[in-house]
Amino acid sequence: MSTVIDGRADTGVFTTMPSIPCTEECILREGNTNCGGCGMSIALTMLSRALAEVGDTCSLAIPACCGAVTAGAFPTTSYGVPTVMTTFASAAAVASGMAAIRDLNEERGQVVCWAGDGGTYDIGLATVSAAAERNDDILYICYDNEIYGNTGGQRSSATPPGARTSTTPSGKREAKKDIVAIMAAHGIPYAATLSIAHPMDFRRKLLTAFQTKGMKFLLIHSPCPTGWKSEPGDSVELVRLAVRSGLFPLYEVFDGRRYRVNAKPDWADPTEYFRRQRRFREDELDLPATRRVCRERYEWLAHMAEAFPA
User: Fold this and answer.
1) Confidence (pTM)
2) Bridge partners of 252?
3) Distance (Å, rounded) from C-alpha 40 to C-alpha 226?
4) Which CATH code is given to the segment(s) 35-307?
């Protein structure tokens, strides 16, 4: 936030510092601690580019996650915009407060929650839901790497079935939580899925979110070579395969009622997607069931887009 106390502590005078303009390199600068092939790094760069394109800026609220350690050790930081590190559960609540102060001060800029799946699907879900119920004017972005990547690679409710993690060494049994459906059920103005392998679609959805008043929720499929046990150079191709095979559909939901599907899968064989990640054992995967679930989900989304078009 940009309202700060003047250095003259005895006067109690408040001044307002100008917003920090965003450039392509502004949000995530050199010297960050992210791993090679990190989807979050690519997504932060895309966010910087989109903000710079429209001449906007932002402040970040980040809970405990990989994004919190990206900045590096105090007193240096790789973030080029005002950033608040929050407790695991409170990022959305803190962002709501930041947005309220922004509006009271008649300041410009997006207030962005930047959170992983652990702080979104699980530990932070209560405050995310509360912000959605109030329709607070924040942009909540979840970079979903499908694990608790910063604390040892434990399973989250975003972890797909069959994935081996430090707490599911034999593979997760439960299905992945449908967080976008949960957010859409709140009737928020805008919810969408994004892939770093589809940069133009990614950009358009960011621009749509910037222009939308109220709560916006974006879900990014974010490859994590460390947790996925994949090669860093495979990251973009992996999430491209996820879209092609129907594992990660690209779509938008407006006001919780109107749907738009953004990419039709070509039903590529998902075997290659799983094979490139050592967190899966091919002999333990039910590939026919996976293909069936993907097709059923896409057919449902296509039906909703036809019956309730955006």
Assistant:
1) 0.93
2) 192, 260
3) 13
4) 3.40.50.970
Q: What is the pLDDT of residues 21-58, one digit of tens each?
A: 888 788 988 888 899 999 999 999 999 999 999 999 99
The token duo for 80 is: 């080029």
Give the pLDDT confidence of 197-242 residue by residue, as tens digits: 999 999 999 999 999 999 999 999 999 999 999 999 999 999 999 9
Measure the N-to-C terminal CA separation of the chain; round to a whole number of Å. Answer: 34
Task: For residue 84, list its beta bridge partners.
Answer: 61
Higher-confidence residue of 284 and 16: namely: 284
Q: How far apart are the C-alpha atoms of 34 and 183, rounded to whole Å?
A: 28
